[in-house]
Amino acid sequence: MQKLFISLGLFVLLIDNSFSQVNAQIGAAQFNLPLFNFSDGKSGLSHNVSINYFSSNGLRVSDLPGAMGQGWALIAGGAIIRNQNGEPDDQNSTIAFPPRELVNTWGYNHGIGLMADEPGYPVVCTPEQYVNNYYPNGFLYSEFPLDLTDDWPLKLAAPKESAFTPRFRQNMDKRWKSSRRTLTDRQQDIFIFNLNGRSGEFVISKLGEIVTIGDSKLKIEKLESDMTASHIRTRIYEFKITDEAGLIYKFNALSLSEVLKPKEVSNSGGNFSFSVSDEDATGEYTVDQWGLTEITNPFTNEKILFSYVDNWLDFVAQKMPSYQLMETAN
Fold it and tell me: Nearest CA to 231 among 91, 120, 132, 41?
């Protein structure tokens, strides 16, 4: 009888506190089911655990189910998620590919092979190495001006070569990469945070200042480090958010995405050939999410700690079929 009473009481509690409705704008079903609530009046620390369901606008081909099932999500801990625009803002290639003094005046790969013999250039970079390995600096570290202008000498930063399509002979390697000034990142990422039932967005300025989108009294800080030794191209390894009560939320459980590079297009097939784009793994990664690891009351030094288990997902989001015209050498 005691077990039955406890189970029934839990069941009634969950039903009474659950929430569901239909989104008035898009007709999507939404459902929230609380699972656990912790609150300590002495320290001021609290945390809620629940599961949410959102049907979105239907199931798309590229949609993947999460650990809780399709459309379901476990709301526990917290996270800061990068909404990437262009390249990751904190991606830095300065060590592997130092900026070149005259790069603004050169078009697509002009003289790129001279890197191997260029006096004073600290690394060797042939055209093949550039195509295979180069990646541009993100918004925070870009060596190019963000605004394009006709004023001298900034007009040299305009990527005019991007208006041309490269042509290859039949026996050529079809891999191709634009110039540095074309590839440079001129768009800011948007960072979305979620903690203890609160959510919001922020961006990082060119000077490294964090600016929240909308009115917020939260203080957000970032910590950076060179992580290339761990094959991570981006530099932000931790965010710290301080709320109005002085509680500190640390986010340093990193979620990584592997960088892929396109394979060489086949040289066979006559004048017209059909191909499906494919990509190779590079073993290089960028950080796309920072998980909440700690909530601290700095006045009492009491903490709530969160730990995570590694989970690897390997999937192909899409493949792009294409036709190419092969020009036969005379």
Answer: 91
> Strands 236-242 and 248-262, how do they pair?
antiparallel
Report yes or no: 187 and 139 within 8 Å, Cβ to Cβ: yes
For residues 259 and 324, the model is more confident at 259
d(Cα 77, Cα 285) in Å, to the nearest integer? 24
* Dist. CA 261–CA 176, nearest whole Å: 11
Task: Give the closest residue to 220 by CA, choosing from 195, 253, 189, 254.
Answer: 195
Q: Are 77 and 250 in contact (CB under 8 A)?
A: no
Interacting residues of 248 by C-beta distance below 8 A, sequence separation 6+: 240, 241, 242, 294, 295, 296, 298
Q: Is 243 exposed, middle or buried (0-12, 13-18, 19+ CB in 10 A)?
A: middle
Distances (CA, A) of 319 to 62, 71, 83, 271, 279: 11, 24, 22, 23, 9
Q: Which two tokens stand for residue 73?
A: 């999500």
C-alpha–C-alpha distance, residues 275 and 316, integer Å? 17
The DSSP secondary-structure symbol of 326 reads P
Buried b (16+ CB within 10 A) or exposed e, 109-121: beebeebeebeee
At residue 321, does pLDDT exceed 60?
no
Per-residue pLDDT reduced to its tens digit, 10-55 = 333 333 455 556 666 667 777 888 888 888 888 889 888 888 887 7
Question: What is the total residue count of the chain?
Answer: 330
Residue 234 has phi, psi (to 5 degrees) of -90, 165
Angstrom distance (rounded) from CA 103 to CA 180: 8
Pairwise CA distance, residues 151 & 70, whole Å: 53
Per the CB < 8 A criterion, the answer to whether 144 and 154 are in contact is: no
Q: The pTM is what?
A: 0.75
Distances 80 to 166, 192, 201, 281 between C-alpha atoms, Å: 40, 5, 9, 26
